[in-house]
């Protein structure tokens, strides 16, 4: 027979009984449960978080196998959100799980008042803009990660600037549905520029494939340790927030280089400005 106390007994020591009880009463919203979102979901469910609202519009395919924790031959063609729900209920049958589909951006005013925090696992620019703006409106912290070849995390608290403001996206002041495809591409490009400026991402990518990705000839590159590492970093930040523990992660992000075993924080002025100029030339050369 399942026992929640037995399930989480080996958590104690890392956290207290009172903190475990708090996790059991916590609710997290995770839109996008394939790659890093799925890894964060799996970690936090095994930590004993009691309730999740999850959403995903996709089904599993073979190309997901290299990094998505709930994907395998048995789940090809199946809903990512529903597969995740079924898998987690086999771990904690008392878990409360609400599953949503592609309608979730239109239901944020209903979803966010019910949750303690948000972990963004979706890679849609327009949906993420809505999520970040709604997080501020509803006073909710949103945990996310930059598109990088290194595990990373950033935490956007209600009082923090939104990523679109911080990174100077062309979307500021506009409704997401009004963004052109060119604007969306520019948003992604500015994020990539930031990542390359403030981390050693460029040292850990094969340039041939990076160029194909930038020009749209190849999908985003991913590797299981990087994706899961990011999900783990996201889950740690979630635990810190839920348990009121100190965290150094901010909206500017923290990168972890596992190849060199070092933490990388954003560069300070004026070094960041100097490096950014080289990064822009680098990106232009790849795109060309």
TrEMBL record:
Residues 10-264 form the THIF-type NAD/FAD binding fold domain. The keyword Transferase applies. It holds the Pfam family ThiF. Keywords: Nucleotidyltransferase, Transferase. One of its GO terms (molecular function) is nucleotidyltransferase activity. This is ThiF family adenylyltransferase. It comes from Bdellovibrio svalbardensis.
């Amino acid at each position: 027979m399942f026992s929640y106390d037995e399930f989480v007994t080996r958590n104690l020591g890392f956290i207290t009984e009172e903190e475990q009880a708090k996790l059991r009463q916590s609710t997290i919203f995770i839109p996008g449960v394939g790659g890093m979102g799925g890894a964060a979901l799996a970690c936090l469910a095994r930590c004993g978080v009691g309730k999740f609202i999850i959403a995903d519009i996709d089904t599993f395919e073979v190309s997901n196998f290299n990094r998505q924790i709930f994907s395998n031959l048995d789940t090809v063609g199946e809903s990512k959100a529903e597969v995740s729900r079924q898998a987690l209920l086999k771990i904690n049958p008392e878990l409360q799980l609400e599953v949503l589909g592609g309608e979730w951006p239109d239901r944020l005013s209903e979803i966010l008042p019910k949750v303690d925090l948000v972990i963004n696992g979706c890679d849609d620019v327009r949906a993420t803009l809505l999520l970040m703006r709604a997080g501020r409106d509803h006073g909710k912290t949103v945990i996310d990660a930059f598109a990088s070849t290194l595990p990373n995390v950033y935490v956007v608290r209600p009082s923090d600037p939104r990523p679109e403001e911080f990174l100077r996206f062309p979307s500021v002041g506009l409704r997401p549905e009004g963004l052109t495809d060119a604007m969306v591409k520019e948003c992604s490009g500015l994020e990539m520029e930031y990542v390359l400026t403030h981390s050693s991402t460029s040292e850990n990518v094969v340039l041939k494939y990076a160029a194909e990705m930038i020009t749209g000839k190849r999908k985003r590159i991913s590797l299981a340790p990087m994706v899961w590492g990011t999900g783990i970093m996201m889950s740690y930040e979630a635990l810190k927030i839920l348990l009121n523990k100190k965290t150094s992660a901010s909206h500017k992000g923290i990168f972890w280089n596992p190849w060199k075993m070092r933490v990388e924080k954003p560069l300070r002025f004026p070094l960041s400005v100097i490096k950014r100029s080289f990064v822009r030339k680098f990106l232009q050369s790849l795109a060309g």
